[in-house]
Amino acid sequence: MTDDDTTVADLRKRVADFVRARDWNQFHDPKNLSASIAIEAAELMEHFQWVHSDRLGEIREDPAAMAAVAEELADILAFALSFANAMGIDISSTLVAKLEKNEQKYPADKYYGRFQ
User: Fold this and answer.
1) Which residue has the higher pLDDT, 1 or 42?
2) How far apart are CA 28 and CA 81, in angstroms?
3) CB-based contact 15:9 (threshold 8 Å)
4) In sequence order, which residues have a C-beta less than 8 Å from that of residue 16 and are 6 or more positions away?
5) Residue 116 confidence (pLDDT) above 80
6) Fewer beta carbons under 10 A from the terminal one: N or C of the chain?
7) Model confidence pLDDT, tens digit, residues 98-113
8) What 3 state SS string does the chain have?
9) Domain segments of the chain: what residues?
10) Which among 42, 31, 46 has a CA at the least distance from the CA of 82?
11) In terms of CATH architecture, what is 3-89?
12) pLDDT (0 to 100) of residue 26
């Protein structure tokens, strides 16, 4: 499976099947899932803690470090997909709507190359 040949629906189903096979739906309520997303995001941040910005390339060049970072991102995505399943949120339409809102809030001609 790659990004080029996998849909969001495929990933949601795979996560749902994984959770269902372990009877974890009882634990996967929105509160627990939102906390899990935050916890996993903190674990991702740990890989960059105390690393100067000019040395971030070293992480990209280190296969073990990249594998650990990718695994944390996968944990975040798995919990986010499970959260969407639990809440009945359509990820694609929600993301597109948010991007459209941000396009209005941050027009490219005013924010190109800057964040404020």
Assistant:
1) 42
2) 11
3) no
4) 82, 85
5) no
6) C
7) 999 999 999 999 999 9
8) CCHHHCCHHHHHHHHHHHHHHCCCCCCCCHHHHHHHHHHHHHHHHHCCCCCCHHHHHHHHHCHHHHHHHHHHHHHHHHHHHHHHHHHCCCHHHHHHHHHHHHHHHCCHHHHCCCCC
9) 3-89
10) 31
11) Orthogonal Bundle (1.10)
12) 95
Region 8-12: mean pLDDT is 97
Q: Counting every residue, how long is the chain?
A: 116
Residue 3 CA: distances (Å) to CA of 8, 11, 22, 55: 9, 10, 26, 28
> What are the pLDDT digits (tens) for 16-74?
999 999 999 999 999 999 999 999 999 999 999 999 999 999 999 999 999 999 999 99
